[in-house]
Design brief:
alpha/beta; about 15% strand; 11 strands; Rossmann fold; single chain; about 400 residues; 7-stranded parallel sheet; 4-stranded mixed sheet
């Protein structure tokens, strides 16, 4: 957990070369009097990792893809910086004595173990890796003490902020907002010919390729519903996806008396990143403010769950629970990777995920080891289903 108020919060950023990681580094640079970056990880972008390590003078870095262990650029790390390799390096970083807070911005289920070890070690977890809770929420949530896990997703940070001071009041509904992605309003037939280049053009947010595709299929919003269910202890049926095209309302909480509290602001991930570091305090804004006098209107709508079937599949997995969300996530990761490599169509993503869910026999989620096995099964099944799809 954080150090006393008169010292800096010592931060480890996992996935520092991705979109969230880079913006987190910018927040740390803007508030260098309050934050100290002590450890960083990257999967394979060693040049960017070394640049960040030199800028922030970090004590430790990790490269999770061991095939980059001999990259010449690593020789340019600052003198004395510890260098770790392999998938287990993340767990070694988060338990370091000089780390108070871990920002987990790793993409996909690969971030689960790091989140687990962070919570077990009693450190603050700034969670940008939604898959940790989608896959392992039943295992992780019992470990989290109040105020220990701070969501970084803009929607979940918004919900968290709407709940501050309202702990005793029952929630009627959570309105989880969504831009609708680049294909809002399209029919299923119109989605059939979508290319990866088309899907990577998100109307509002600048994100990595995997999450951008998830936003286009609306799987991202389905995963976020499951994440919200775990974070806030609210059943899926009380979490409603709301299309908010301008992306200025980041989510809302409706209470039993009919009052609705919303969090609004710029479409800039540095705000929720900073709040996960500063909580319960608020620091100077890390980005330009919104002038609400210049916003002509705010529009709302309902998602088309028949056309965007990933959203319905996520609802199914979330309601059935157990190991189903693990299968959902793993199958989706394989399918999205295939789509990005022109190995399947945009609409095939939902078909592949559905096949994996249909083939799975549900278990209660009980341990990290069990979830790793289920994840491996789902990936293997989906890879075989992809080959069968290509032959048909």
């Amino acid at each position: 957990m954080p150090q006393p108020d008169d010292s800096k919060l010592r931060v480890a950023i996992l996935g520092c070369t991705g979109s969230i990681g880079r913006q987190a580094l910018d927040v740390c640079a803007q508030h260098s009097d309050l934050l100290e970056v002590v450890a960083l990880s990257a999967h394979g972008k060693t040049k960017e990792l070394v640049d960040a390590a030199r800028t922030h003078h970090v004590a430790c870095v990790a490269v999770t893809d061991s095939s980059h262990a001999t990259d010449p650029i690593l020789a340019e790390l600052p003198k004395g910086t510890e260098l770790l390799f392999g998938a287990d390096a993340l767990a070694r970083i988060v338990v370091r004595d000089d780390v108070d807070c871990v920002l987990n911005a790793v993409v996909g289920a690969a971030g689960l173990t790091a989140s687990y070890e962070t919570l077990r070690s009693g450190k603050r977890l700034a969670l940008a890796n939604k898959e940790s809770l989608v896959v392992g929420g039943d295992v992780l949530m019992p470990l989290a003490r109040p105020g220990q896990m701070l969501p970084v997703d803009s929607e979940h940070s918004a919900i968290f902020q709407c709940l501050v001071g309202e702990e005793r009041n029952p929630i009627h509904a959570i309105w989880l907002t969504c831009s609708g992605g680049p294909f809002y309003g399209r029919t299923h037939d119109e989605l059939a010919g979508i290319t990866a280049a088309d899907a990577l053009r998100h109307p509002t947010w600048s994100m990595g390729p995997k999450i951008t595709i998830d936003s286009a299929t609306l799987m991202n919003k389905g995963l976020e519903r499951i994440e919200a269910m775990h974070l806030f202890g609210v059943p899926m049926e009380q979490i409603t996806v709301l299309i908010q095209r301008e992306s200025k309302i980041h989510s809302m909480v409706e209470y039993e008396d009919g009052s609705v509290i919303a969090q609004l602001g710029a479409s800039d991930m540095r705000i929720p990143i900073q709040y996960a570091f500063s909580y319960p305090n608020r620091w100077d804004a890390p980005c330009s403010r919104v002038d609400f006098r210049e916003i002509a209107s705010l529009s709302f709508g309902a998602p088309d769950m028949e056309t965007f079937r990933c959203l319905a599949l996520a609802e199914r997995a979330g309601i059935e629970g157990g190991t189903y969300p693990c299968v959902l996530n793993a199958a989706n990761e394989v399918a999205v990777h295939a789509f990005l490599n022109d190995e399947c169509s945009f609409t095939d993503i939902a078909c592949l995920v559905e096949r994996a869910l249909d083939a799975h026999v549900r278990e209660e989620a009980e341990s990290i080891e069990q979830l790793r096995d289920v994840d491996a099964w789902a990936r293997s099944f989906t890879a075989h289903a992809l080959k069968a799809l290509a032959r048909s």
